[in-house]
Amino acid sequence: MKVLFISRVDALTRPGGDTVQLQKTKQGLERRGVDVRIGNIEESQFEWADIIHIFNAQTPERALPALKMAKNKGKKIALSTIWWDLKYARLAYQLNKLNVMPNKFNKNLINPSNWLFSVKEKEYLSNVATVLDMADILLPNSEEEMEILSREFNLRSAKYLSVPNAVDDSIFSYNNHEGSGVICVARIEPTKNQLNLIKAMPENARLTLVGQGDRNSSYYKSVERLAYDSDVKIISDHKDQGEIAHLLGQHKVHALPSFRESPGLSSLEALSVGLNVVVSDKIYCPVDTYFGSYLNKYAFACDPFDKMDISRALANALEVASPSFEDTLAVPHWDEVAEKTLAAYHFLR
Please, are residues 140 and 73 in contact by the beta-carbon 8 Å criterion? Predict the structure, then answer.
């Protein structure tokens, strides 16, 4: 079986969680005898493949040309949707442009008829709907993700298989460590909410931010200034997964109070290493699928718009004991992802 992977243009030069999902899925499939290439929208590459697997419904400008070429070539199409409700992340970006911190009061600006939902936004969502409709099978990262897709895009009979995000347990292996403080591994940008995280930190708890970002952006500069004033360490150079696992092991809590995640690979990786985690409520993240069995034990959910709620979750996560090795066994691994993805391919054939 020959499969061509298509993702956003900058997936390898501006890596994120979707890049890790792409690469780890490729490796797992190859171990199972599947010939996988990460390619471009070129006729020769599409003719080579039996199945076209597109990653990320959030980039219809990339997905639509790939879908159209695949249809023209008579190829079956799998789509890893990597989707979550975008409106709160969009609001965070809009507030940042106005130099306003997201909080529990301006959160209520969200309304389908307000200025956020412009003609451009409606056109974008229409293109996403077309992407979803053209795929032969959807591969959401959770049942919650599929529920959101079905609700937002009126999907009634779409074929799908939930394929979880996962961790590489050969890298993010359990570490019975004596770490302290809080770490956040995420790109520095408004969606990830580092400004509110810094402001919510409990007194005398150290915070380390690990992530790249646009150093010329107003948000990055604001994070730098506040981090300097708050004695927060920023590690902004690229770190490979082994280095990230080592950094995680030096801390007790990983915090990602983001405005949207699906579910946030760094949170899963932190759990696998043996950290407690702070994540966002189920409005912003598939909490039930990934953190349900850990909630209020080792995982603490918060409202990312509410600084006091973030602070509460951080204090709880810092206070309680860390998970044992047995507690971390429920975290999905990439072999499970490969098996489910391969099952989806067999369904298409």
Answer: no
Instruction: Report residue 327 as tokens.
Output: 């507690």
Return d(Cα 157, Cα 176) in angstroms, integer. Answer: 46
d(CA 126, CA 225): 39
Tell me the CATH number of domain 2-83+118-166+334-348, given options 3.40.50.1390, 3.40.50.2000, 3.40.190.150, 3.20.20.80.
3.40.50.2000
Q: Which residue has the tokens 């080579």?
A: 48
Q: Tens of pLDDT along the chain (349 residues)?
A: 999 999 998 877 777 888 899 999 999 999 999 999 999 999 999 999 999 999 999 999 999 999 999 999 999 999 999 999 888 998 899 899 989 999 988 887 665 445 455 667 888 999 999 999 999 999 999 999 999 999 999 998 889 999 999 999 999 999 887 899 999 999 999 999 999 999 999 999 999 999 999 999 999 999 999 999 999 999 999 899 999 999 999 999 999 999 999 899 999 999 999 999 999 999 999 999 999 999 999 999 999 999 999 999 999 999 999 999 999 999 999 999 999 999 999 999 8
Query: What CATH topology corresponds to 182-328?
Result: Rossmann fold (3.40.50)
Q: Which residues of 88-110 are buried (b: 16+ CB within 10 A; e: fewer)?
A: bbbbbbbbbeeeebbeeebbeee
The angle at the Cα of 220, spanning 62 to 281, to the nearest 5 degrees, equals 70
